[in-house]
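Objective 1b: paired records.
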Amino acid sequence: MITMIDQGFISGIEYTPTKDGILFSNLENALITFNGVEYLFDNSLMQKLKRTLKDVKGILPGI
């Protein structure tokens, strides 16, 4: 989750490293950003499946 916050995919969440791990705060303010939505659309399982099926269609005639 830290990477997603740092890369700007999620906003509104704050985190603090502690000796025992990471403390997240302001979770009620969490928002997905435009970049986060774009990432989800570009990297979703359905998009990968769609590309795979296009490749299969190109290999197998008549489909």
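Objective 1b, second protein:
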Amino acid sequence: MKLTHGSIGSLLLVAGIVGAVACGSNDDDSNSANSPSGPNAGNGNGGNGSGGGSSSSPPVGDPNSGTWLDLGNTHAPDHAPPVPTNTGAPTRGGTLTFTNIGAPGYWGRRIEAEPGDPRCDVQSETINFGWGSEFCCRQKHEVTSNTLTPFNEQLHMVLDGPLKVKQFVVYQPLADNAGPWAIRSFWDSRSPDKPYNFQFSGPKNDTTFDGVLGNSCTFFAMQQKKFPCGHGSDPYCPGSDLDYDGWPGSKLVVVLASMPYADDPAMAPRTCDEHPDQRQQDSPWIGISPSELNRDGWSGYHPCHCFNNTPGGQLGDGCGQINVFEVIAEASGPQWGNRDIISTGIRSYQVGSLGGVTCGIQSCGVEHFPNDADLVDVNSLTAMKAGAVVDANNRAMKEGPAWRRALDDRYYLFLLDENSRTVQVAVMHPGKLPPAAQKFLPALPNTVTRADIDGFVNLRLPQ
């Protein structure tokens, strides 16, 4: 939960370092291209989206035709492979695999209630603001499944600049996790005003995403179907610009993007940071958050939210969030902040926090790592020789896996898979795609097989 861009160093970073040697940690414990195609494709950007009022209604697709019945029996538009922009030799790539994700438990879900309601067993509080007050009721939302919970709920995507995105795609199972998957949402910088089943919300209420996010600029990405906030909504949400369905169940997200420095003169006209020293808040972020958190009326910042079960603080032991690729701003201090290192960490009621390695600029200068490394060990200050695996049931490990920031294009991928209870995160150079990734990169076919998904689950990079 990024309360302010760059403030995460003081709120959500490592307080207890497990197995750290340098400055890292393996445990984060602190405070679209064209119009739709296919049958009945004339419904614009993908029809009504998935869902209904439930927070986890699955999408409805036809595994034989590869179309989405709940999107007007359409599929993603035909598209040509992108043209990446790269300099120098291809890099090694990397994978960071989180296993055994999901557990029985609960988080405090916001419900519509009046003061004194006995259902408010997590939080019952009248919150006073300068302009008035609001009653907050949170009830235990009990979870009995261990199947990727809570990340099988509806999730929104969050993108923070500086970022330059060329393609942005979400795959989901058409009918069941064991069958074929298809593109559920598609966006391409070559036709930025024609997304397929994407709803965007950015600075100054901008709903058109052109792919270029300046320093400290934030865009939220959702499905196009409105979520019915207001009276009777479940989970309760008062209403905001983010009242849209997220993606429930299993999903594979593919982003082709670069992370230019914030003080790159070409990025200056797009900045949302008024500070004269753009480097201090240079912290791109690709995250995935519970839709119910983002729909709280304050884009995830409302004091009545599901992020924490523990009152006060920022433990993140509630409804979950994944900081898939997060740079910690150097304004957070030299112990934590480093614009050249990217962290990946998971937060939820299951473990509190998992992963989230950081390494500040005082100890982790980029000169320590070879130019062709993507996945690095910040504890030993070396390049990782193999993909890293973090087990939610056995978190201790000697390595501190993190990413070396690339200024040119990379494929940033993350898979949340119910079948294997795995969150797989990967970075790949477009010029060095392993065979398992070539099943869907760079062509991004409309459908992929379950075997293709399993191949990605089992991929370990570098090899």
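Residues 3-22, 25-54 have pLDDT under 50 and may be disordered. The helical segments are 8-11, 291-294, 450-457.
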